[in-house]
TrEMBL record:
UniProt xrefs under Gene3D superfamilies: Cytochrome b5-like heme/steroid binding domain
PANTHER family the record matches: CYTOCHROME B5, CYTOCHROME B5 TYPE B
GO molecular function: heme binding; metal ion binding
Domain Cytochrome b5 heme-binding: 7-83
Keyword Iron recorded: yes
Membrane-spanning ranges: 122-141
Protein name: Cytochrome b5 heme-binding domain-containing protein
Entry superkingdom: Eukaryota
Length: 151
C-alpha cells in the first residue's frame, strides 16, 4: 500500500519520515502539522519539538497545558490527518525498532520539564518564605527600636 493514502491523509510510516530539523512533522490530536518553519520560534525551545519530530506529540503537547493561543498557532501548519490517530497513540507502528524510541523521547522530555518546573516552584516558595522572614525580623526590630525611644 502506498504510504500516502490520499492527499492530506498520512500513514504513521509517512509521518515518521519527516523528523529532521529541515523537515519536521508531528501529529497532535489526529492532525498532522508541518512545524519546520515554526520550530525555531517555539517559545518552549526547538529541542522539545525536534524530540517529537515524526511521532504523535499529543500527550507531550497537552502535558504542557498550552494556551488557546498556542492551539490557534498550530492551524497554519496543518497539512492533513493521521491515517489512524488510534494506532499512532498506541505507538503500534510498522517500524517498532525506531518509532517507539522516538516517541518515548518525545514524552521523556516532558518528564524533565515537569521536574524542572517543580524545582522552579519549590525555589519560588522557599524564596517567598525567606523574604517573609526578613520582613518579620525587620518589623520586630522596628517595634523594639520604637519602644526603646518611647522609654
Ligand atoms: C508544534 C506545535 C506547538 C505549538 C504551536 C506550541 C506553541 C507554544 C506556545 C505559544 C508557547 C507559549 C506558552 C503558551 O502560549 O502556551 C509554548 C510553550 C511551551 N511549549 Fe509548545 N508548542 C507546540 C508544541 C510543543 C510540544 C510538542 C512540546 C513538548 C514536547 C511543547 C513544549 C512547550 C514548553 C515546555 C513550553 C514552555 C512552557 C512554560 O514556560 O511554562 N510545545 N508552546
Amino acid at each position: 500500500m502506498s504510504p500516502e493514502l490520499r492527499p492530506g491523509v498520512y500513514s504513521a510510516q509517512e509521518i515518521r519520515k519527516h523528523s529532521s530539523p529541515s523537515d519536521l512533522w508531528m501529529t497532535i490530536h489526529g492532525k498532522v502539522y508541518d512545524v519546520t518553519a515554526f520550530a525555531q520560534e517555539h517559545p518552549g525551545g526547538v529541542e522539545v519539538l525536534l524530540d517529537c519530530g515524526g511521532v504523535d506529540a499529543t500527550e507531550a503537547f497537552d502535558d504542557v497545558a498550552h494556551s488557546d493561543l498556542a492551539r490557534e498557532m498550530l492551524e497554519p501548519y496543518f497539512v492533513g490527518f493521521a491515517e489512524s490517530a488510534q494506532r499512532e497513540n498506541t505507538k503500534e507502528v510498522s517500524d517498532p525498532e525506531k518509532a517507539p524510541e522516538t516517541a518515548a523521547k518525545c514524552t521523556k522530555r516532558n518528564d524533565k520539564l515537569r521536574d524542572f518546573r517543580r524545582q522552579k516552584t519549590c525555589a519560588s516558595v522557599l524564596a517567598g518564605v525567606a523574604l517573609s522572614c526578613v520582613i518579620v525580623v525587620m518589623i520586630l526590630q522596628k517595634i523594639q527600636w520604637l519602644s526603646l525611644i518611647q522609654r
